[in-house]
DNA sequence: AAGGCGGTCAACCGCCGGGAT
DNA sequence: CATCCCGGCGGTTGACCGCCT
């Protein structure tokens, strides 16, 4: 059997907190600390769920919280971090002392996303809206692509338009200390891909349709990425981090082009590294779909 | 003065991973 | 090993407020 339930949900109060409730919660946390939220309502004399108490405390009553407006520096940092992390509000809030994830999330949804749109920047991809429209249009009417690539492994990266902000993503990751400095070859790859905006479809090589496996890195690239990323992720996240792209190097090089193999590769890598948050980041960032398969290897996501 | 409307933000909901039993 | 709950998270809701007509 597991633990007993945290609270009697039929007998808990919901809705806005009263000053009396705040005082009780503050009095309790100041003397007993914040552990074991399950017991907090009972011991503090509150008819609230422990979860509600925790939320109230962390978002409003916690000491050292800033309640004033966001500064320009905080605003810039949020935008930068959102470009890197997507809607990982807790991670973003960790970089902003005195701010909660709820604060950051609300500020983004109510202010910053609108500001970006007014400046002609898509708040999801952080790319110029005009650039996005151009990309969409190019995809919709893309003619058959000549220019076959001699190396199939890099074909996917050159097939789709390069994202406008790969350098922002990469630099910001390293600047924030989330990833260690990239090895020299990665910077070269970034520059090469940004410069190479001439589309060349892998499908055009043999007149085939694009495969799932075309989005998997080749073995040679994966080998280095595997070691680098593993080390980096352990250092940065205590074992966290992983790349879906280099993940099934066995299946990637083997020409297994169905969706199941692709997904298996993702899952294998995920299990191997022990974390999947970076995958979630990738999935949350459409720029990487539109950009290239090499984006994640540039960031050191190899396993 | 009153109703509509949009912005803000506290709080809730539901999901997930990890840990306790 | 299986079950179940806790804590944390992101998404969403709804109350409140100010502005406009």
UniProtKB/TrEMBL annotation:
Keywords: DNA-binding, Nucleus, Repeat, Transcription, Transcription regulation. Residues 9-61, 62-112 form the Myb-like domain. Its main location: nucleus. It comes from the Eukaryota. Gene3D superfamilies: Homeodomain-like (1.10.10.60). GO terms for cellular component: nucleus. It is found in: Nucleus. SUPFAM superfamilies: Homeodomain-like (SSF46689). Pfam families: Myb_DNA-binding. Residues 9-61, 62-116 form the HTH myb-type domain. PANTHER family: F14D16.11-RELATED. This is Uncharacterized protein. The lineage of its organism: Eukaryota, Viridiplantae, Streptophyta, Embryophyta, Tracheophyta.
